[in-house]
């Protein structure tokens, strides 16, 4: 028999994630979702359903018109019955509850999401990504030799793989400073951590700037690296990972992300040569995926990489990502110093906000990034 249970979610998570409702999925999933769904209450139906039942391929499950006001019969719970008049007025629950059921013709709040693009990497056994460059930033980065070597490693990895891993301090110090961030940091720890990570991001920006041959401080100007957004992603275990939202295939919308992974289970999968090998979590290293904005600014010298997350049937996983973004009004275009007669611009110029507003929903739906590109025949 189906047991019904009303849950509150702070971010749009799939009900099969269970009762954990902190942190939530990456803000990626919160983009372009109707605002009201972020405070949405909906029914969780505890029953085993197949993946196709939950996400029927031909179902218009993700269409939610602005004026949508569902009216369903919902069993009353004691807490509702005793709710004060003011709360009832502010939160008219019956109208906020949406059922996720197999036969329902009701509209759902999920973003339009082509089923083919949900788990292109599959959810079974995955190969390990065993040739990820691991770059040591703990050396003497002032002395020319080390600096040149590290810059070369970063640029090469970002060109060939679209991401790299790095150590920022000696491993033992590292554990002490950063381990307290996971699995669930206090606000104070999160604040301290984000300051440390900001320093690391500025160092990486300086090194990449030099590696690309751009004038010093290039990324400090025009708001190019002004915004840092921290997201804590928690992926509870799911008895059937194929029913659970991890993170769909995407490449990051920013310059880069500084990602800390906890736990033993490799679940971050990166697309390389048509395969989706998983990145082993190293507790003392950061994973740095290059974002699309960096690909554009570097005129294609650095490449952003598709990645995604699949959940595990037994083990939870938590990651902390600090994303380095331009400010919303920044103009994004190939750096002038990288463009000349022999190297024409490969990307159009755009304002970051115009791009970021649609980028996530586009890539989630498998729409390619072609429209940002300039084709040489144009
Ligand atoms: O949690 C992860 O491993 C990846 C997170 C991610 O890709 C993102 O937040 O963009
Ligand atoms: Fe990502």
Automatic annotation (TrEMBL):
Q: Which GO terms describe its molecular function?
A: L-ascorbic acid binding; metal ion binding; oxidoreductase activity
Q: Does the keyword Metal-binding apply?
A: yes
Q: Which domain of life is it from?
A: Eukaryota
> What are the UniProt keywords, alphabetically?
Iron, Metal-binding, Oxidoreductase, Vitamin C
List the PROSITE patterns: FE2OG_OXY (PS51471)
Domain Fe2OG dioxygenase: from-to ranges = 223-328
Record bears the keyword Oxidoreductase: yes
Q: Which family does it belong to?
A: Belongs to the iron/ascorbate-dependent oxidoreductase family.
**Protein name according to UniProt:** Fe2OG dioxygenase domain-containing protein
């Amino acid at each position: 028999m189906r047991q019904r249970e009303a849950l509150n979610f702070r971010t749009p998570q799939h009900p099969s994630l269970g009762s954990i409702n902190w942190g939530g999925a990456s803000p990626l999933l919160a983009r372009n979702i109707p605002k009201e769904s972020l405070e949405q209450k909906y029914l969780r139906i505890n029953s085993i359903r197949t993946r196709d039942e939950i996400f029927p391929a031909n179902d218009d499950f993700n269409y939610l018109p602005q004026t949508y006001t569902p009216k369903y019969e919902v069993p009353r719970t004691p807490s509702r019955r005793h709710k004060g008049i003011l709360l009832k007025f502010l939160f008219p629950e019956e109208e906020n509850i949406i059922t996720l059921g197999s036969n329902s013709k009701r509209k759902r709040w999920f973003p339009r999401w082509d089923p083919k693009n949900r788990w292109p990497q599959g959810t079974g056994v995955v190969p390990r990504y065993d040739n990820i460059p691991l770059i040591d930033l703990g050396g003497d980065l002032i002395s020319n030799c080390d600096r040149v070597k590290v810059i070369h490693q970063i640029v090469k990895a970002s060109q060939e793989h679209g991401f790299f891993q790095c150590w920022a301090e000696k491993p033992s110090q590292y554990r002490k400073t950063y381990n307290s961030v996971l699995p669930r940091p206090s606000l104070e720890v999160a604040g301290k951590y984000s300051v440390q990570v900001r320093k690391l991001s500025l160092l990486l920006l300086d090194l990449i700037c030099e590696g690309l041959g751009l004038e010093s401080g290039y990324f400090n100007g025009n708001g190019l690296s002004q915004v840092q957004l921290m997201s804590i992603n928690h992926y509870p275990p799911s008895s059937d990972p194929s029913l659970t939202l991890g993170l769909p295939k995407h490449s990051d919308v920013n310059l880069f992300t500084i990602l800390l992974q906890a736990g033993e289970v490799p679940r971050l999968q990166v697309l390389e040569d048509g395969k989706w090998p998983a990145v082993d979590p190293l507790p003392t290293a950061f994973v740095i995926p290059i974002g699309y904005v960096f690909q554009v600014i570097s005129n294609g010298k650095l490449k952003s990489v598709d990645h995604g997350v699949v959940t595990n049937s037994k083990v939870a996983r938590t990651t902390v990502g600090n994303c380095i973004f331009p400010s919303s009004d920044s103009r994004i275009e190939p750096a002038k110093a990288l463009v000349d007669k022999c190297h024409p611009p490969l990307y159009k110029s755009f304002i970051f906000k115009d791009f970021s507003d649609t980028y996530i929903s586009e890539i989630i739906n498998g729409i390619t990034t072609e429209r940002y590109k300039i084709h040489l025949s144009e």
